[in-house]
Write a structure and sequence with these properties.
homodimer, DNA-binding, about 5% strand, mainly alpha, two-stranded antiparallel ribbon, 7 helices, about 180 residues
DNA sequence: GTCCTCATGTAACGGGTTACATGATTCT
DNA sequence: AGAATCATGTAACCCGTTACATGAGGAC
């Protein structure tokens, strides 16, 4: 049935921004959109090969003296069309797996200590995430000459922000509840 | 390295609540905690077999006239210990993949229509989720004779609630932004 | 001197989903 | 009559991560 993985469309999608190498794609994802996406080399390179075979992208070797050669990838018209097609399709509702919530759900009063510890770690992570997002946001807003699609970028960041805030609120509430439970014992 | 899957511990964890069959486990997950976890039969049954071989659970056949037989699973002391061990370990920070955010990030002004449609679907889903969570919450709160661990259950629901609210807020904001973009064209 | 970044690629492995097989009962 | 629920289990498949291989240049 060729259930096309999303990775395929991330690659095509990033190439609509500009031609780049597989390495660049990985880097872009890790640096710019890691708060809602991630890919490893082991999934990118084989797909690049496949997309080339399917005629959705073309690769052009770029040799730099004293540096490793790069394969610059570029969309073909066919690839652009495939991406547009995917773009118009409905997303399937995402089902999450939260190991933290699982642990909490399966908790009992005997492990309040480790629970509190994990919540504090979570809180710290989310706070860091939030400050990172806010920083990125102000960077985008001040850069006048940024991409014409920055409205969409800001939209994704806004969601990260709101959700991180909600999670921080929740973690604080939960820590308070646990503190009370400890006293009440 | 036997990177133990979480599924293993969900099974052990649910059996700390009460003995049940593989079918019950699936049902419980789908009905009670589907907003943060999911499992398919294809992952549960093979693991049940494995856990039995490892001596973490024992299975007892229960035959009912005119109904399919059930294998009632029960924790062994060893299984209880393994679960407690997992419970005390730190969770690894969860990395999400949001297809919706990916699509938005890769959008441009030419597909505002389909974007709005997808956001509306998302909004409807989240609203439904929220009302479901609120309903469950009030059910738990009114049931006096519920489990002693209901505080933890309520904690997980609270996170679902806060996050759903944040997402709803975001979706509404984003729809407003898109409406403006359409006009400004 | 060692580690990090650049740069591509493969192989092994792990884990989960979907679909199928089977079959009785109960709900619509 | 047909669909859904109860109940277990297997096989095919898909997909993605981790680790490895290779090697030069720059940073600390």
């Amino acid at each position: 049935m060729a259930r096309n993985s999303h990775t395929k469309y991330v690659i095509l999608g990033l190439l609509t921004i500009q031609p780049m190498s597989g390495y660049d794609i990985r880097k872009f994802i890790a640096e710019q959109i890691s708060f809602f996406w991630h890919e490893s080399f082991g999934s990118i390179y084989p797909l690049v090969k496949q997309l080339t075979e399917e005629g959705l992208i073309v690769s052009k070797r770029e040799d730099n003296p004293g540096r490793p050669g790069r394969n610059i990838l570029r969309l073909t018209p066919k690839g652009r069309k495939a991406f547009a097609q995917w773009q118009s399709e409905a997303v399937q509702s995402e089902q999450i797996k939260s190991e933290l919530l699982l642990k909490i759900f399966l908790s009992n009063r005997s492990n309040l200590g480790s629970l509190a510890k994990q919540l504090k770690t979570f809180l710290a992570e989310q706070s860091e995430q939030l400050s990172y997002l806010r920083q990125t946001k102000s960077q985008i807003e001040t850069e006048a000459g940024s991409s014409k699609n920055r409205a969409f970028w800001l939209m994704t960041i806004r969601r990260g922000e709101l959700v991180a805030e909600a999670r921080i609120k929740w973690a604080n509430e939960s820590l308070a509840t646990i503190a009370k439970m400890k006293q009440g014992k």
